[in-house]
Amino acid sequence: MSLYSEFTPDAKLMIEDFGVPLVLATGQTFLAMISDPVVNQTLEAGGFLEQTSFTVKVVATTTSWTTESGAVGGSTGSLSGGVAISALAIGKKATIANLGVRITASQYKPGSAWVILTVQTDDQ
Questions:
Q1: What confidence tens digit (pLDDT) does each residue in 90-105 have?
Q2: Exposure of 21 by Cβ count < 10 A (0-12 exposed, 13-18 middle, 19+ buried)?
Q3: Does 74 score more than 70 pLDDT?
Q4: What is the pTM of this model?
Q5: How far is residue 63 from each of residues 43, 55, 72, measured CA to CA in Å?
Q6: Which long-range contacts (CB under 8 A, 24 or more apart) does 4-13 make?
Q7: C-alpha span between 76 and 119 (Å, rounded)
Q8: Which phi and psi angles does 10 have, rounded to 5°?
Q9: Could you tell me how far CA 123 lies from the centroid of its own chain?
């Protein structure tokens, strides 16, 4: 047994303890871990725009799964063909912790237990 084979089961246990629901615009649901918020301020025409960004982690799986307590861990797999599913692509909308967000970056490193998203509050 290799160390890598333990990554995904460990990630699922962490998500069960610390996860919050991430609901995509397509209706797909994942438990996710979310970072502390970071307030970004950019100069736009007419003044400054403040947006809050977060890093969100979902477990990298190819199929749906449930937690040991029976909660939905992923209503579908987060990976398809070795890359994050299209619903997790840049520009897509989601809701996490009752906050509307837009995905601004998505990354998955083969062998990793996580699909890592950067999201920003969606004020549009």
A1: 999 999 988 999 999 9
A2: middle
A3: yes
A4: 0.88
A5: 42, 23, 12
A6: 4/111, 7/111, 7/112, 7/113, 8/59, 8/60, 8/61, 8/113, 10/113, 11/57, 11/59, 11/60, 11/113, 11/114, 12/59, 12/65, 12/67, 12/73
A7: 20
A8: -65, -40
A9: 19
